[in-house]
Amino acid sequence: MSEPVLRIEKHDEIAIVTLNRPQAMNALSRELRSALARAFEELQADPDTAAVVLTGTGRSFCAGLDLKELSEEATSGIGNENTIQAIRAFEGPVIGAINGFAITGGFELALACDVLIASPEARFADTHARVGILPGWGLSQILPRLIGEFRAKEISLTGNFVDAQRAEAWGIVNRVVPADELVPTAVALAADMLSCDRRSMLGYKKLIDDGMGMNFADAMKLEARLSAEDAASVTAESIALRRDAVRDRGRAQGAD
User: Fold this and answer.
1) Distance between terminal CA atoms of the chain?
2) Disulfide-capable partner of 118 in 75, 130, 173, 193 (CB 3.0 to 4.6 Å)?
3) Is 104 left (phi over 0), alpha (psi -120 to 50) or beta?
4) Overall pTM surpassing 0.85 (yes/no)
């Protein structure tokens, strides 16, 4: 019996979703793209799942679209599955645990996450220009906004690899941790996020995402409007309870 192309494990409210085509460097075959989209749709509908950690097996996070498969079929089928949209539509935090190569479509898959943690073996590359296609999952727009136009052009117009240390220095990943600590670190980070006031945390994520799609002035107006609407539903008692919880957490973490 063959291994499934996608594995899902549950740790309380956190789902660990693992790309599982190590023999193909977790390249996104049509089967895997469909499975990934379906998994995120099902996790979004699952009231017992509040956060996701996305990672890969073997030496690759994801090598992008399966070029061998694409060479044997019409390219009009590229991207028909709503894989990236399903990830972005997940309301809770999605933590990418980048264990190895994240190339082209795999780079775009990583950038669909909310936060990226990398192992020292992580490598990022955008080879669209070398393969002879243009990106369609957001890489040309997300990467310049993340690290700046000049650095994004260096990556995308050369196709050169960016190692984990440079990715951290340039702000592609939040931090680099030893390989054996990668998924536990991502799970712990997701748990930290879920320990916040749930409604506020989810609303904050959406506010950041929606604001990033606007110009700065409109994004500031959006924040002001939503903040005023939210304040109307907050009571003095709820603020006092949350203040005490924040103070206790700060003391536990060594803050004055």
Assistant:
1) 57
2) 173
3) left
4) yes
